[in-house]
Input
Amino acid sequence: MLWWLIYVAIFVTSLFGLVDAIRTPGQAFPAMDKQTKKLWVGLLAVATFVSFSAVFTSTRFLVFIALIAALIYLLDVRPAVRGIGRDQGPRGRW
Output
């Protein structure tokens, strides 16, 4: 049961990273020297698929590699590209 909860947390983390990468403008990635949007969306899509399969099947040997890819995006790439190219209104990012 504990491992299943860990796999669900990894799936949610990689899904969040994937959605955020899709929403981030493509020009923000090269502007901050962070590869390309296509590469990150592809990596995070594979990570999401692998972590999803770990939750619902017995394929679990690649799930921690998926976690590493998601954490690199969330802890390194996302903070760097977060504000580039997004439309900011008078009250911030609303």
